[in-house]
């Protein structure tokens, strides 16, 4: 009987520790002409518990790209968009609540962009600035920002070139994040069931 009480006590202690335990995760993405890769590192209590580097596949030929675009376009029908929009409206508050539990410690994103045409390079660089600015604004609005994000776009007017490097470090409490993620999944399932019931 004593060992059962001890086991229950140990489980409760481990649950409390895991609920408040902060996990630090660093993501690094490098897109280069020669080689592109994605790197992830996870630290707990200052100890590296997980590290992995994954090389990204090389660019496919134009024929393969065209085939993939045709296949992907079949997913973006009007009905699919309506369903996805309804699901998003059902879970967006919980998603933003989850983002609010995440701390952003570092975000550096630099891109070198060249199309071979100076005019087109200027237009695309301006568009990329807008995209990056929107992403940073989303982070600062909903996440706890510890260090100001850094973004940069370097136009290359002399040649065709696309190089991009992005490093992001976030931290979150394990238990709180699991609970919030569980609420999101449950809400998605509930919304899908309601949609299927209405369509039936």
From TrEMBL:
Keywords: Membrane, Transmembrane, Transmembrane helix
Stretches that traverse the bilayer: 6-31
Alphabetized Pfam families for the sequence: DUF2953
InterPro entries named among the record's database cross-references: DUF2953
Protein name: DUF2953 domain-containing protein
């Amino acid at each position: 009987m004593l060992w059962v009480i001890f086991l229950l006590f140990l489980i409760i202690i481990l649950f409390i520790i895991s609920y408040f335990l902060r996990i630090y995760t660093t993501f690094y993405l490098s897109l280069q002409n020669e080689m592109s890769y994605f790197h992830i590192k996870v630290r707990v209590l200052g100890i590296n518990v997980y590290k992995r580097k994954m090389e990204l596949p090389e660019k496919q030929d134009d024929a393969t790209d065209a085939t993939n675009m045709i296949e992907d376009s079949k997913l973006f029908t009007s009905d699919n968009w309506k369903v996805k929009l309804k699901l998003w409206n059902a879970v967006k508050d919980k998603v933003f609540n989850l983002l609010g539990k995440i701390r952003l410690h570092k975000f550096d994103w630099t891109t070198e962009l060249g199309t071979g045409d100076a005019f087109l390079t200027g237009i695309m660089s301006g568009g990329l600035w807008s995209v990056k600015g929107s992403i940073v604004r989303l982070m600062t609005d909903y996440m706890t920002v510890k260090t100001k994000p850094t973004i940069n776009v370097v136009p290359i007017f002399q040649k065709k070139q696309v190089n991009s490097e992005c490093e992001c470090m976030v931290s979150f409490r394990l238990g709180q994040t699991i609970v919030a993620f569980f609420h999101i999944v449950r809400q998605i399932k509930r919304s899908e069931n309601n949609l299927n019931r209405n369509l039936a």
